[in-house]
Amino acid sequence: MSMQAERTLPPNLKAAPFFGPLKAINEDFAQFLLDSTRQYGDAYTFTIANQRIFVFNHPDTIRDVLQNWETFRKAPIHKEARHSGLGHFLGAGLLSNDGDFWKSQRKLIQPSFHAQYIRNYADTMVHYTQQLLNQWRAGDVREIEHDMMQLTLNIATKSLFNVEVDYYDDLADAITGMQHESVKILKSPMKLPHWMPTLQNMKIKRLNRVVDKIIYDIIETRQKSGDFEHGDLLSMLMQAQDEHGNGMSKQQLRDEVITLFVAGHETTALTLSWLFYLLAKNPQVQQRLHDEIDATLGKRTITLDDLKKLPYLNMVIDETLRLYPVGWLFVRFAAQDTRIGDYDIKTGNLILMSPYVLHRDARHYPNPDQFDPERFNEENRKSISKYAYLPFGGGPRVCIGNSFAMMELQIAVATIAQHYQLELIPNQQIEPEPLVTMRPKYGIHMRLVARQSV
Ligand code: HEM
């Protein structure tokens, strides 16, 4: 008789054989997780095509998975993608690397994100927000996600590369082109192999060449001149060295800057879009925010010192990131057999954890669908446990751009709200679409109303 104990598993989700809940996942992944968690609780499992998948929703379990970066690795999906044209584009940067290589790269890059350096990008953030305001006219109707994407794209390009304008447009165009292609591929039901000379694959190849050429040119010019003082993230990374005095190769530099670019600009743009949407839906919150901004800034340009004088603004940002954590799904796979809580995890099992689901859990956030920045006032914030609020992830792989993003959100929102109130155009359908990030499926159309006060 075998003495081996039965494998302990959480409840198994009822679903069709073989493909499991794939249909529901394809329809709306976030909603599927929300519904299943309400039905099955904080831990459950299902299989798709013999792949076992765990879903965890308890803050303690999520903490255990996120902290153990050596056992729970980024899903192998990233690695397969690396061989495709899209994979080449993203390369092997912080977001997708694993194990010791990830650890040493993180150590190398982390100092460039120290608060003292991040502060240097404040002027860039103010400048491009003001540039956007110069394009706006009172009464205009704008698709707000598009405008916010343009804004964060400008800020990212300048902060990362600080390059000349002619270069800059080509680079920004190629990178956005690449991101459009990735969304198209994600959405398309049929995936053709990357080596087939389809129109799309040829386009991806061409865009890759443009991006590589521009970035390698910038790196080589700097290496030749020996001048690294460009006041941008690339120059910080070019000077970064490990304890043996080794820096990054040209290709590694390219992969890391592209990764920062991709990880940073869209997430911030989408958060800004959801924030203005939520403000328009909640006029009392909007009024209080305007009052704070008027009292603290009036119409003068925001400075770094102002950031700590706008507590309500921070509460609004935190509450937006609760309802719409745009990095809405964390995926890990077990690199070895292990246990989490009472459950046995086998090598290769996938783990899903969603801050979107966690943040809409009434046990942590009473009346969870309501937008209420007061949840994050000084007093209430104390009762939210650390791993129940994860808009930037947690553990060693927490978002490296967290402070950069917060500063960008503060500056952009305050500067825009000094001048405009954004009103929702009636009768439009606004729905979150959970792809890699959570975006408004049909965009968000808003009318610009000039603010008269002050
Ligand atoms: C509101 C804006 C942002 C949100 C909501 C966000 C969210 C996240 C989340 C949830 C993760 C962890 C994912 C996981 O554990 O699976 C992450 C990782 C990461 N983020 Fe952000 N992010 C934002 C802005 C930025 C910015 C501005 C940058 C760069 C300038 C950036 C760079 C990265 C990188 C490189 C990682 C991977 C870190 C690692 O694994 O070591 N993010 N982000």
Describe the protein in words:
The chain has 454 residues and is of the alpha+beta class. The chain has a domain at 1-89 and 328-358: Uridine Diphospho-n-acetylenolpyruvylglucosamine Reductase, domain 2 (2-Layer Sandwich). It has 18 helices and twelve strands. The strands form four sheets. The chain has a five-stranded mixed β-sheet. Strands 4-12-9 form a three-stranded antiparallel β-sheet. Strands 6-7 form a two-stranded antiparallel ribbon. Strand 10 and strand 11 form a beta hairpin. The model has no long low-confidence stretch (mean pLDDT 91). The site of protoporphyrin IX containing FE has 22 residues, from helix 13 and helix 18.
Please give the structural blueprint.
Blueprint: H1 22-27, H2 29-40, E1 43-48, E2 51-56, H3 59-67, E3 72-74, H4 77-82, H5 85-90, H6 99-109, H7 115-118, H8 122-135, E4 141-143, H9 144-161, H10 165-187, H11 199-225, H12 233-239, H13 250-281, H14 283-297, H15 311-323, E5 330-334, E6 338-340, E7 343-345, E8 350-353, H16 355-358, H17 378-381, H18 402-419, E9 420-424, E10 432-434, E11 438-440, E12 445-450
Parallel strand pairs: 2-8
Antiparallel strand pairs: 1-2, 3-5, 4-12, 5-8, 6-7, 9-12, 10-11
Residues 94-95, 106, 259-260, 263-264, 267-268, 271, 326-327, 330, 391-393, 397, 399-401, 404-405 line the site of protoporphyrin IX containing FE (HEM).
